[in-house]
Each structure stands twice: as C-alpha cells, then as structure tokens.
Amino acid sequence: MFTYLEGLPADTLGLIASGPLTHEDYKGLEPKVEAMLGHGPLKALYVLEDDVSEFSPRAIWDDQVFTWNHLRDFSHFAVVTDLTWARVMAWLIAPIMPVRMKVFPKAEMEAAKAWIAAPD
To answer: pLDDT truncated to tens, each residue of the chain (120 aa)?
Structure first.
C-alpha cells in the first residue's frame, strides 16, 4: 500500500510503500501527481519499507505506465530503503534516468529529506 509523507515542500511527493502493492494503490497515485504538476518539476522521496512483500501483476504494469507517463515530470528522486534488491535496482537504473537520483539507507531519512528539499 502507499501512504503519503506530510511536511515536505509543495513540489515534493513523499511516498511510503509497504506490504503488497496493488492496482488500487497506483490508481490513487495518479491524481495526486497530476494535482502537484502545477508547481513545476516535481521531486520525489520514495520510501520502501522492509515489508514490501509483493507487486500484483497489474501493479507491475501500472508502475511501468506511471514511470513512462511521468518520467520527465520529476527532477530529483530520493530512494530510502534497506532492501538490498531495491538499492541495487535504483543503482542500476540511475544512470539512464533523466533525473538526479540518490539512494539512502533508512537510518539516513533526515539526510534524504534535506537532499530532496535543497535548491537545485
């Protein structure tokens, strides 16, 4: 499921992923991002909790469609997780992404917030 982090700058989407991720989670994400786009390029702080257990097949598709549709809408992307597979995936895709991307362990959540809030 997705929950949203509060207290971030208006141009920053704070998202926490936990448990199983479903099509319904992505359906709720799209309107949130669309509403934020009026602020210019967005930044994202994406936290993957240790209990992210599965992605439904439809959620995997939704993730790809969301990424494709909004790839150029984000300027910065911070990934906060202790999951080895997620850290490796972020490291592998960072060079081909058109955003500044940085990965932080969960113990450095405050550093991730500072990095994402810093001016360009």
So the answer is: 999 999 999 999 999 999 888 888 888 888 899 889 886 889 999 999 999 877 778 888 888 888 888 888 999 999 999 999 889 989 998 888 889 999 999 999 999 999 999 987
Query: Is 120 a member of any domain?
Result: no
Domain CATH for 102:
3.30.750
Q: Measured at the alpha carbon of residue 65, what is the angle toward residues 59 and 68, in degrees to the nearest 5?
A: 140
What residue type is assigned to position 63 of the chain? D
- Which alpha helices (H) appear in the chain, and where do they start and end? 23-36, 57-70, 84-93, 109-117
In a domain, 104, yes or no: yes
Query: Number of structural domains, the chain?
Result: 1
Domain containing residue 8: 2-112
118 in any annotated domain? no
Q: Which of 17, 79, 81 is nearest to 54 (CA)?
A: 17
